[in-house]
Amino acid sequence: MRHGASRSAVLVLVSAVAALLLAPGTATAEQTIGLSSGTFKFQAAAGQEVRGTVYVSCDGDDPIKVLVYAADQSVSPTGAMSYQAPNRADLTALGSPATWTRLRMPSDSKSLGNLPYIELDPGDRIPVSFAVAVPQGTPPGDHNLVIFFEMFRMPEPGTTQALVSGRVGARVTLRVKGTLIKRLEVRPFAVPAYVVGGRVPYSFLVRNRGNTNQRVSASVLLLDRNGSESATAQPIAAETVYARENLQAEGEFISSGAPLGPHTVRLRVVPVDDEGRELDEGRDAIELDRAVWMVPLWLVVLLAIVLFALLGRIATGLLRERSRARRRGPRPKRRRVHDLTDSERGATGYDARNAKTSGLSGRERAAGRSAGDDEGRGGGAGGHVEGW
Questions:
Q1: Residue 64 and residue 33: Cα distance in Å, rounded?
Q2: pLDDT tens-digit readout, 200-212
Q3: Which of 134, 281, 285, 385 is the most interior residue, by most CB within 10 Å?
Q4: Within the chain, what is the greatest distance between any pair of CA atoms?
Q5: Distance between CA 24 and CA 270 in Å, rounded?
Q6: What are phi and psi of 135, to 5 degrees?
Q7: How far apart (Å, rounded) are the C-alpha atoms in residues 200 and 295?
Q8: What angle do CA 181, 205, 259 make, to 5 degrees?
Q9: Domains and CATH numbers, the chain
């Protein structure tokens, strides 16, 4: 049961190989493929089936051969997209929408290996139908796959590899009914703490923590200390963050003039519709600020010159002092008193007795003199008696 497919009237074109460069002046043939619609959006419950049709056209000058197959999309942690056709191990996987898909090819289609292909002449327009059956137990939310139409040439003699010349895809989004969750986060949002010059790099990661695809736009402002805009950028313009996946963006402000002092980098991420208009008047927007100090290059150069001059002056002073010290020669060695000869002691007025008592207090020196006098008198008396 089909629940509404969004079919754009815009023709999706792929210019694929350039052709044979023949003799000079000969026209160059071109192979071009077109699709009637590049996107399909369905809604169904688990256990139901949805159907769609893509019209494939040959819009070039040469006939083309087109492989048709469904592929699952894989998103890296930073948002890089890749696609993988399912293998046998994926046939029962609930997380592989490509395995839920059956292609209904025209009756005159052929196959290369296990992949069907169609042949188109210039001007042909052939319908290719598909059906997507949602398995029981599929979790609610958005599930994504791509039906690819890939131009190729048959393998050369002696080889088994077909030559792919270009491909274009029709994206299919299938929303399984149930509890739908819309939740966006921005983490991390990185800005350097300070920069020299007028360039301010930034990077951020938008995380879809819900189970529905969300289209978002992101703008970044550089504000000076007064809140005035110094620079603006829009790193994300109405891009899809797929359910349970991430989308990374990065860039760099180039501010005019010579900014100095604290600045603010302001990020605003807001959900938008397919035309890029804000949903719910931007009530679900996420705004984050980061502070950055900006220092102009001329100021850094000036400070470096001043510092270099100051260090040079200090070094010059030290060298001059060392030069003076060499010219004066070595200082004479100071001699201690007990190393002097008797004549040198006399010439310097050295008194051993005074030297011994020089560190004593006045009372101690007086006591010492009294003891000396008594000793002198006693010695004299004894001598006199002995003389008798």
A1: 8
A2: 999 999 999 999 9
A3: 134
A4: 166
A5: 54
A6: -65, 155
A7: 11
A8: 135
A9: 12-176 (2.60.40.10), 184-295 (2.60.40.3880), 332-367 (no CATH)
